[in-house]
Sequence to fold (460 residues):
Amino acid sequence: MNSSLSVIPPGPVTARPGAALAGEITAPGDKSISHRALMFGALAVGETAIHGLLEGEDVHRTAAAMRALGADVTRGDDGTWRVRGRGIGGLSEPQDVLDMGNSGTSARLLMGILATLPFTCFLTGDASLRKRPMGRVATPLERFGARITARGRADGKILLPLAITGTAEPVPIAYTLPVASAQVKSAILLAGLGTPGETTVIERAATRDHTELMLRHFGATVRTAPADGGGTAITVTGLPELQGRTVGVPADPSSAAFPLVAALLIRGSRVTVRNVGLNPRRAGLYDTLREMGADITVSRPHTEAGEPVGDITAVAGELRGVEVPPERAPTMIDEYPILAVAAAFAKGDTKMRGLSELRVKESDRLSAIAHGLKACGVEVFVDGDDLIVRGQGGRPAGLADAAPIPTHLDHRIAMSFLVMGLAAQKPVSVDDATPIDTSFPGFLPLMRGLGADITTSASL
Ligand code: S3P
Fold:
């Protein structure tokens, strides 16, 4: 299941302040796009070839689930993944429970696919995923006619493990998202694919649109129009014949953020990450960093499989605190941990508003960020759903020999605090960096190649 680059041993990992970072690197493929390429390939007829797929644990979970449902998924020696799909409605009942590991995207999008397949499937996940809310997906899917039996239902929650029985006679729905979530939107659109007629999702806040862009690439009809009451109505026409396609996966802007922010914070650094996805619905971190005064430039802009892509260069310099409005949250929802680390080095307060969704990510990120920053000597306040970081206009103390920061099975908390350790006055350790393999296999060697001093218990 693990990628060949899964080299992080269990136990603490320590990042130490040191030399400037320099170099030009390729970050791993976009996680959101990778999941979708495998899933849509499985729902298409013919062959889908995927270049640059993220070979991280989360995406391996999706690949395994698609195989268990009858799609033929293989990896060639040249790194190209090929999916021979079964067509919409052609997937078959798996023989075993599908374990989605740490991956919310795998679990929620898969539920959308399963909602209109007439058999029962059992889903579970790791200790982090089993705490995350599935009701947000189950509620609209039950309106299509799917049946879901889940842990926690008696308490008004829906948690993994769960059993989902798809309906043979789905009815199309129109549904307004109660939370800004691309995973929920995508689950509904995928259920809409298996449903005759038109299914509409209304989103008041614009979330990442990889599903819409890639479904069109595979030949589905997806229309968008302004919604009554604000936002966008996205309508998919059911039962299309999706055609296998070639997908080039750009580097993940959410992963590129770690080496790029490290470069901004460590004096004398200059780092370029090649071929990064520049979809405006994922660009909130980069917009915010520029407002903070960061020297971030884009070169070689071009398009791949409907997605804008380019090289991003970050050069170290001083940052100032800013206010990040709640409307921006969906465009940088995974980037608050690393932004909070950058904010600790900026001059003045950075106020990040409207972060309720951070509480239901791989960990409760609001509390994990606040705990970690405090341990590193940074003043931080959580006020309702707002996070305020008091920037010191210089390097925070770091941890030195204090207890490692708990990562709570959260890859982005682990990477963010390792970046803190590279730039703070004293080293920073995290208690468990193994979850980094879910999204960024090869993080440690890649950072070391730029000049970072990061050691695991095995390398001591
Ligand atoms: C994702 C959507 C976001 C994001 C996650 C990936 C996706 O989750 O946090 O890492 O691929 O659609 P939400 O939809 O829950 O906000």
User: Anything to note?
Assistant: The first strand starts at residue 13 and ends at 16. The pocket of shikimate-3-phosphate is lined by residues 32, 105, 181-183, 186, 208, 333-334, 357 (CB under 6 Å). The first helix runs from residue 31 to 43.
